[in-house]
Every structure is written in structure tokens, then in C-alpha cells.
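Collaborator request, handled under Task 6.
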Amino acid sequence: MSFLRRLISADRKKAQEGEQAKQHVAIIGLDAAGKTTIMKRILRSEYTLSKPTFGVNIEVYRYRTLEFVVWDLGGHAPIRKTLWKKFVTKASVIVFVVDAADQKRFHLAKEVFYESLANTDPNAPILFLANKSDKEEAASTLEVMEALELHKMTRGERPFNLFRCSALTGEGLFTAWDWLVDVVSKDSSIPTWHVKIYAAAIFDANAKELDHAIFGNPTQQAKIANAYRESIKETERFAKQMRDYNEAVTVLEIMNDFQLVITKNKLFVMGILIDVNDPVSRVLTISSRIFESIEMDYLKGHQISLEKVISNYFPLDAIS
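C-alpha cells returned to the collaborator:
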């Protein structure tokens, strides 16, 4: 029995026994669209470009409460004609990646997508990622939607959405994946808005620490002490690695129970430690608001207090 069939059979058995089965995700798109770089960014927080995929990369990982088996399928023509149908037919989720800066191949991307659509589960959600949107020559969201003729699809038939993103900086990726998790899980117990902020640390663009904060009572703080120290170390590491970028984002799993969401803008790099099941997209909104609120004080040379800003602006998110 092939590896693909073993995975499918094992998950069907889990479903019959009442356990939550893994979601099978086929990530497709033309060659050089950035599929492998996107998956490495989400799965392993790697910040480097990937080599072309000539075949299939298979990864098993967890994001929030769901487990995913991701099939990263090479986008060259021979692979599209031989392997795509086999995997796409079995997928419970489809991710279609288009290079937003490669407008000359939009027509080909559209043709390839609709050819693949005929082989998919009619109920499988589709996440469209307009990658490389950080480039000056990248098309707008509307231009990508028109090029792919997404008006032909109706949300009454299956859920779908399109997000602009950058595989290199991580921008847009985690908001898109949060949408996918919420659509696939359909679990009302999964947090979709507020998060639980356990700790935070902020550095300047040169990786100099400006402030850090830990929330909760002393007992809670003691429980997360190791994760707190790890989050500060990882935020500093990210700040050093991403010095050449004005904006970037990544998410790391810390000690199985926490997520560390690290965001960068031109002036700051901030890491926020939250629960492993919390939505990253909410933290991105929080980070943006914090950056705005402290920028003027920072430029004036005033002391920055993360604890004060988070407690004042986001009292429902900070644990007490």
C-alpha cells in the first residue's frame, strides 16, 4: 500500500473511532510560485527561499487544534500531468498559490487551476494565496481575482478566500491559515477572536531589547517562566535575522503549549506569547496597534512600557 493510501486509511479509521482525523492539504500552483517556501515558513519558520520541487514534499504538522498532512506538489508541467490528479482528488483542502508578480503567466495559472478543480472534492475549501505581494510589480487583490476569474466560483458551493502574502517575510500567511483552520474545524470551542497573552518582549530594529512583560499572578508566571525566557531569546534571534526587512512575521511553537508570534515593522520587533490554540491573526492586529501607540514615545526618547500598553488597550486579551 502506498504512503498516500496508508495516510488516508489511517485517518478514515480515526474518524470511525470518533477521533479527529488529519486534514489532507494539497498545495498547488505553477513552478516558482513559492509553494515550498510558504510551507517551510508556516511549518518550520524558515526564512530562506527554497529550491524547486520536482515531485512531492509531504509534511505532517499541527496548527492550533488541527493536524495537517500537507502535500507540496511540484508545479512543472510533467508533474502537473502525472501527480496532481492523484493527490488533489484525495485532498480535503486545496491551497492554490499564484505568483502575484508574474502577471505574464496569470492566464496559464488560471487554466491550470480550473483543470485541477475538476478533480477536487466539491466540498473542499480553497485558499488562494497571492504570493510575492511585497514586490512593487505585484498585482492587486482585485487584479488577481479577475485574472483567475474567481467570479465563476460561488461561496454557496464551497468556502474559498484569497489573501495577499509574502513567503519571504511571512506577511499575510498566518491570517490566511487562521481562516482555513476556522473553516475546516467548525469547532465553536476554538478561539476565533480574543487570545490569551502570557508575555511579550520588544526590541528595536537593531535587536536591542527595549522592554518585556509577563502577565498573570505569581503562580501563573512561574508556570510559564521557561516559555517566557525562550520567547525573549527567539524574538531577539528573529530581530537579528530580519534586519534587512522593514516588515516580517513568524510563528513558533514554544514547549508544546504556547505560540510565539513575532512581528516586525520598520522600528520594532515584538514577540507575543499566547496559547497554542489562539488565532494568530488577532495577535497581528494587537501588534500593529501597539506599534502605533508606542512609536511617538520611542521617537521622543521616552520610556516604553509594554505591560501598560497591553493592559490599557487589550485588557480582555492579557491574562490576569
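The cover message to the collaborator said: "The chain is about 40% helix and 25% strand. Residues 280-299 form the longest helix (20 residues). Please let us know whether this matches your experimental observations."
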